[in-house]
Amino acid sequence: MTGNKLITEFKKQNRDTIWQHLESLATNRKVYSDSMKGIHPYLRNNTLFIYAAHKSLVVVCLDNCPPKEELADEAPFNLEDPLYFSENSHRVSPVWQLSETINLIRKKMAEGRNDWPILGVLLTESTIINAKDMQDVWDEMDVKVIDRADLDVEQTFATHPDEELTFGTMIMNLLRELDEEKRPKESSIGKEEDEFAAMLEKFLNDDSGNKKKEGEKDEGEDDDEEDEMEEKETPFGSVGSDVGLPSGIIEQNNNVSVKVKVLPPLANPRKELDKLVGCQEIKKRMDELLALTRYNKMVHDAFPNAKQHEVSLHSIFFGRPGTGKTTVCKIFGSLLHEAGALSKGHVLVTDRGTFIGTLWGDEERSVRQVLEMAQGGVLMIDEAYLLNSKHENDPGRIAIQMLMEVLADEKQRDIAVVLCGYKEPMMQLLDTNPGLHSRFPNRFEFNDFTVDELMEITRRRIGEYQYRLTRQAWQKYKEMLTAAYQMRDPQSWGNARFVSNQLERIFIRHAQRCVKQQPADGQRLLTITPADITPIDVPRPKPRIGF
Q1: Across residues 385-400, what is the average pLDDT?
Q2: Backbone phi, then psi, for 382, in 5-degree steps?
Q3: Which of 122, 202, 231, 275 is the most exposed place for a label (fewest CB within 10 A)?
Q4: DSSP alpha helices (H): ranges in 276-376?
């Protein structure tokens, strides 16, 4: 039995066929099967059955819960621990526990450079009321759920741990090693609550609490606030560059200087790309571009004189604010650096104000300095269409013309230029400058996030602060977010930025309530209730005037 067939056959099973299927595998000489009592930490008290065929693994978990009716919810109701609800109680999601165990196994296998497909199968006697609605979610978690299963059959279950199947032996050794690893579980929640309470009191009682620290940004002050997640930046030299970050100071003339943002490359851009909420088509297109870039390098290393495919790195990002353009641009630069296409991988974030000065010649000086700073990385121009005024003497046109000259220079290979902005005006920019069409062949369209995607962004950001939302608070928040989404003005809707602003309002309301009520239980300092959920204003579409 091949690995793919092993997983495919498991996915076909139901409560009536599963035990017969397991018995048949116990006599299949091509499938390694064995059992073990739990894997630390998530399934340490569960009986597990392991099945391995060539480069494939299935982990069958017997649920410990007695028969009952339950409502499955894989969302982080209690932040890191999604809950299942019954009439009088709740418990941590067994599917989430199995999924997390699978992720630990994947990580352990990756250390040995083994990238096997893994499926988890949960057998539970519970009746999952909303099982049909959860199928897509469970599929994404790589878990097959069979509820209302008769676990008494386990008494007569057999396995086939044939030592001749070396890949199965390797898997069992790996799992036992994983289970034996020390995982300190010392709770630090009390310490965290004390620190949180102290910080909260200082923030609310300090008259200077509204003052920004040096270098600190206001919420929504710059394009990084459109990111649907926060990346941890690393020192510039940590991913292979021996040169420090450019200063980011553009000297337009003796009296005027402009500061631009310089984003350092990421240590693990592939991981950050995979973590992005939504953006599936963008991920696919980026993988295609990177594959051709890497292929060119492989061919050049093997056959230095062979002709290579022409690969232009210059791209256009279509999308409204808050859809993740800056985040993807940062990942883009780091991925191109890893692929060997860029020597540094940093990103220089600019806009019209970066180039337009107060004296004659400022534009030319600005463009040259910007291009010099962006060498080896990505030059990102936000709202690039603003450089394309209808007035012939607009200095923005000079900046575009100089960029065109640089892009036409075959020697300028160690730079990628990314133009960002709303789709309609960006298309007008391309139409009025025919040369840009050929210079920017890569087009990435960033669509508005759906309500479900915005909910996932919310969960991640709340998790950063270790907050807990009651079930009623989650429900109220989702209803509020859905209403805001339905009445939004597509031209001014903030997407992930709206979530940031909304959460800021919730956090402030929560802080005020805690200071006023002085809860005796420290756990309540981190619990957000429906009283904390207050909507912010949403710009609505302007009514048309006339007939």
Answers
A1: 78
A2: -80, 145
A3: 202
A4: 280-302, 325-338, 352-355, 362-374
321/495 Cα distance (integer angstroms): 7
CA terminus-to-terminus distance, the chain:
69
In this structure, are strands 378-381 and 127-128 parallel, antiparallel, or unpaired? unpaired
pLDDT of residue 12: 93
Domains for the chain: give ranges and CATH numbers.
3-180 (no CATH), 186-206+218-223+449-547 (1.10.8.60), 229-446 (3.40.50.300)
Q: Are 433 and 331 in contact (CB under 8 A)?
A: no
Report the distance separating Cα 7 and Cα 107, nearest Å: 19
Residue 37: other Cβ atoms inside 10 A: 11
**What is the C-alpha separation between 86 and 427, in angstroms, rounded?**
54
**Cβ neighbours of 454 (radius 10 Å):** 25
What pLDDT, in 10s, does the model give residues 463-511?
Answer: 888 888 888 999 999 999 999 888 888 777 888 888 989 999 999 999 9
Q: How confident is the model at residue 397 (pLDDT cuts 50, 70, 90)?
A: confident
Average pLDDT, the chain: 79
361-374: b (≥16 Cβ within 10 Å) or e: ebbbbbbebbbebb
Task: Over range 335-355, report the average pLDDT.
Answer: 90
Average pLDDT for 185-210: 49
> Nearest-CA neighbor of 73 among 153, 169, 137?
137
Give the number of other Cβ atoms within 10 Å of residue 414's Cβ: 14
- Is residue 385 helix, strand or coil? helix
Both tokens assigned to 443: 């087009």
- At residue 436, the pLDDT reads 82
Contact predicate 511/525, CB 8 Å: no
d(CA 267, CA 279): 21
- In angstroms, the Cα distances linking 210 to 201, 202, 217, 461 are 14, 12, 12, 22
Residues 539 and 363: their CA atoms lie apart, in Å, by: 35
Give pLDDT tens digits for 92-120: 999 999 999 999 898 888 877 778 899 99
Which amino acid does the sequence have at 136?
D
Kindly report the number of other CB atoms within 10 A of residue 377's CB atom. Answer: 28
What residues have CB less than 8 Å from 283, skipping those under 6 apart? 273, 274, 276
E strand map for 298-441: 315-319, 347-350, 378-381, 416-421
- Parallel, antiparallel or unpaired: strands 118-123 and 56-62: parallel
Sorting pLDDT into bands at 50, 70 and 90, what band is 357?
confident
Please name the residue that has the structure tokens 């025919």: 434
339: left (phi over 0), alpha (psi -120 to 50) or beta: alpha
pLDDT digit string, tens, across residues 138-156: 999 999 999 999 886 544 4
If DSSP states are collapsed to H, E and C, what string results for 443-463?
EEEECCCCHHHHHHHHHHHHH
